[in-house]
Design goal:
The protein has helices at residues 2-10, 13-48, 119-126, 164-168, 189-231, 236-270, 288-309, 311-315, 335-349, 356-389, 393-404, 406-411, 414-438, 472-483, 498-505, 529-534, 594-607, 626-669, 671-679, 684-721, 732-759; strands spanning 74-83, 86-95, 114-117, 140-144, 156-161, 174-176, 448-452, 489-495, 525-528, 547-550, 584-590, 624-625. By secondary structure, the chain is α+β, with helices and mostly antiparallel strands. Among the domains are: 1-49 and 186-322, no CATH class; 59-176, no CATH class; 454-507 and 517-609, no CATH class. The radius of gyration is 34 Å and the shape is elongated.
């Protein structure tokens, strides 16, 4: 039977060669995408397993004597700087001996007056004016970091060398005798691993459907021939062997072609950023065991798909002619969807309850099952509506076809329905959250630089031992220097003197925190009304006041959605004293020019460095804009969204392949009635319109139901996360993903029309 199967495959004329090419191309597409997913996963794994030298914990300098330091130690000060929304990882280091440890990618740490940079950082420094970036780093470039120190080719890293005395005077400096070798522990790592794992598993489905498409197209055409073989004595096992050989040969050729295509496009795959950061090209590589598994398993999968497609022939030689119309779907199919949606909205609406997560997750799953269960009923209702509105033969034919088997019609677009549902819900939630953190009133703060000087426990830039802020002299010099930049507005917040706080709020005063925990804390800062007018989003002064007292704690939260604006209201107490003698707590700088903003940031980093303290990371509270603070959270959210949309894209691929199976196989199975319609005088245009209607109607109807359901479920979540911010529709990523999926489906429909024209040609009016 194997030799007969080979002969039927290779010597069946044009039909056999076409079938072989179709199977090979289908498998090649699936293998290429599967290897790309595996390659991206291994690249992510390589980054996740990289030694996190940045995680090294520096010990306090109080136990270290610089007069007689150990030879295997160094001073260490790691911080993160920012440039035009990009994070710059900065390590200030001073070796204490010739045995000081070095980070991966360096043979030894740079000496005083020298620094080593990543390739991307070197290019950025070379292409940026020094007063915007380069002046922040003392010395000259000595070398380039190797890949071992980096997570990807675009990472910005600089290692700056100092003398021990210089670095010891910088706040946040500690001592290190060993560099951490463990990988970074990130909360999103397990999420990404799960996402890639599901992606690899999900790719098996498109591959099965792709292979099944080619196999089904040939098997549907040859079912009657196989039945004829069964009538003359061929056994079901023999039929299966012939069909398996046919599919296996195409799968072997397609697998080899897919591996070759992947090797050609691997450099381009490395440029695709799944988690938001690009990876090194050589890490995008499946293992040898995975290549072998693909070579062995894909032909087996193809053979199994071929056998499954011929299951009707195995029943009996005459089984292919037995067709019955299933009973129509009933309205009860809507009940799981309605119950799940109601439970989910109620659970999310009562977010403060401990039982809400236990209800929300199962109800969300129930909604997904409800959509799948309700789909056939919706398809049947669409066929009834189409029949009622029909004004011609194409509409009636399409309505009759959909009503005959709505389950089969919906099955081809069920994957699309779930993809649209999940994509709409996730896209709405993410878009609303991102807009809430950087849009609306907060948009006025996106380009405002903020820096605090009130939380230091280290040495002061002005050598003062006071506990809060910059001295009045240094504050005045700093404000004057910043105002010399063109187009710059400076908003200064000063420390309220302790004596003023005691006089205004002491001994049971209105603002003093008392036994009642709900009593708000007393103001500790002062801002001028003129500064408030520069940045109205902060609030307004009481009538007639020149300055106002406030508590600006919200300005330095790491979650922009937790910032409550305005921070000053007309009911806040006015401040009648002078500002010239107060210490500077917080400085905010606003400018509309990105280059000027970086010059200001460079000036502050060099001349008035932010002060390290117990509440900020080692290296100090580096100047950031409010938009950059929001971007940190946005990056994590958008990376998760990319992984989710990757899964949605795979689901859309499944939907497109399923549609190809249904349409291609359906057209060939209905070859006889289509030819009879053509012979009886039906125009080809009418047949084309019939196929379009019966394909597009369930596609559009289920997509609309899924989109509305996803939007309904997203509204309470978005309101809870965005604190009542206006609802935002999904963004560009959602639109591109969905448009791409719909384009694939429409392309599949369009490609079947020439097939319909060929099989209904007059010279094909003969039947076996």
């Amino acid at each position: 039977m194997i030799r007969l199967g080979l002969r039927l495959t290779l010597s069946s004329g044009r039909e056999g060669i076409t079938r072989l090419i179709a199977t090979a191309l289908a498998v090649a597409v699936g293998v290429t995408v599967l290897l790309a997913v595996l390659g991206d996963y291994h690249a992510f794994q390589a980054g996740a397993a990289r030694q996190c030298w940045e995680c090294t914990h520096a010990a306090d300098l109080s136990n270290l004597s610089l007069a007689a330091p150990p030879a295997d130690a160094e001073l260490w000060n790691y911080s993160e700087d920012y440039f035009k929304g990009q994070t710059v990882e900065r390590l200030d280091v001073a070796a204490l001996g010739d045995k000081a440890p070095a980070i991966p990618g360096l043979a030894q740490m740079p000496g005083p007056g020298r620094y080593d940079v990543s390739p991307a950082m070197a290019a950025l420094l070379a292409g940026t004016p020094h007063d915007q970036l380069g002046d922040r780093f003392p010395g000259r470039q000595a070398g380039v970091l190797a890949d071992a120190a980096l997570t990807g080719p675009d990472e910005l890293v600089i290692v700056v060398g100092y003398t021990p005395a210089q670095l010891a005077a910088i706040p946040g400096t500690g001592a290190v005798d060993k560099i951490d070798t463990a990988p970074r522990a990130q909360g999103t790592t397990s999420v990404y691993r799960l996402g890639f794992g599901l992606g690899a598993i999900a790719m098996v489905l498109p591959m099965l459907v792709l292979v099944g498409t080619a196999t089904r197209l040939s098997a549907a055409r040859r079912e009657e021939r196989y039945a004829a073989l069964r009538l003359v004595g061929a056994k079901a096992r023999q039929i299966n062997v012939m069909a398996s050989v046919d599919a296996a040969i195409g799968a072997i050729l397609g697998t080899a072609l897919g591996i070759g295509v992947f090797l050609l496009i691997r450099p381009q795959v490395a440029k695709v950023s799944i988690t938001g950061a690009k990876v090194f090209g050589y890490t995008v590589a499946p293992t040898a065991a995975e290549y072998v598994a693909v070579l062995l398993l894909i032909p087996i999968i193809a053979a199994a798909a071929a056998v499954w497609s011929l299951r009707r022939v195995k029943v009996s030689p005459l089984g292919v002619s037995r067709r019955t119309t299933p009973p129509p779907p009933r309205a009860w199919r809507l009940i799981p969807l309605l119950i799940g949606a109601a439970l989910f909205v109620a659970a999310v609406g009562s977010g403060g309850s401990d039982t809400s997560p236990a209800i929300a997750f199962p109800s969300f799953v129930l909604v997904m099952f409800g959509l799948v269960i309700a789909g056939p009923w919706l398809t049947m209702k669409c066929s009834v509506l189409l029949a009622a509105l029909a004004k011609g033969a194409p509409s009636l034919l399409a309505a009759r076809r959909l009503a005959d088997n709505p389950r089969a019609a919906f099955r081809t677009v069920s994957g699309l329905m779930l993809a649209v549902f999940v994509g709409t819900a996730i896209g709405t939630i993410v878009s609303t959250g991102l807009h809430a953190s950087t849009g609306g009133t907060r948009a006025q703060l996106n380009d405002v630089l903020r820096v605090g000087y009130n939380i230091s426990d280290g040495p002061r830039p002005d050598a003062s031992n006071a506990n809060d802020g910059l001295s009045p002299r240094l504050a005045a010099q700093t404000i004057s220097a910043l105002q010399s930049y063109r187009g710059v507005s400076v908003i200064a917040i000063y420390a309220l003197p302790a004596s003023a706080q005691t006089a205004a709020h002491g001994n049971g005063g209105a603002g003093q925190r008392g036994p009642d925990p709900n009593t708000p804390p007393a103001p500790d800062s002062v801002i001028s009304c003129a500064a408030l007018r520069e940045l109205p989003v902060l609030g307004t002064c009481p009538s007639g006041a020149q300055a106002v007292e406030l508590l600006p704690a919200d300005l330095f939260t790491d979650n922009p959605l937790a910032m409550q604006f305005p921070i000053v209201t007309g009911g806040d107490p006015a401040y009648s004293g002078g500002l010239a003698d107060l210490r500077l707590n917080i400085l905010m700088v606003r400018t509309g020019d990105a280059a000027t903003l970086e010059r200001v940031r460079t000036y502050l980093a060099v001349h008035i460095p932010p002060l390290a303290g117990a509440n900020v990371p080692a290296g100090g509270n580096q100047p950031q804009t409010f938009g950059e603070v929001a971007q940190v959270r946005q990056a994590a959210i958008e990376a998760a969204q990319r992984v989710i949309f990757l899964m949605i894209g795979l689901t859309l691929l499944v939907a497109g392949c399923s549609l190809a199976v249904a349409m291609g196989g359906g057209l060939i199975e209905r070859k006889r009635p289509f030819i009879l319609l053509r012979l009886s005088g039906t125009a080809s245009r009418s047949l084309y319109l019939t196929v379009l209607l019966e394909s597009l109607l369930p596609l559009v109807a289920t997509a609309l139901l899924a989109a509305v359901t996803g939007l309904v479920l997203a509204i309470p979540i978005a309101n809870a996360l965005a604190h009542g911010a206006p609802l935002q529709l999904p963004g560009h990523a959602y639109g591109l993903t969905m448009a791409g999926g719909l384009a694939v489906c429409l392309a599949v429909i369009a490609l079947t029309l020439p097939l319909l024209g060929r099989i209904t040609a007059s010279d094909n009016a003969r039947f076996e």
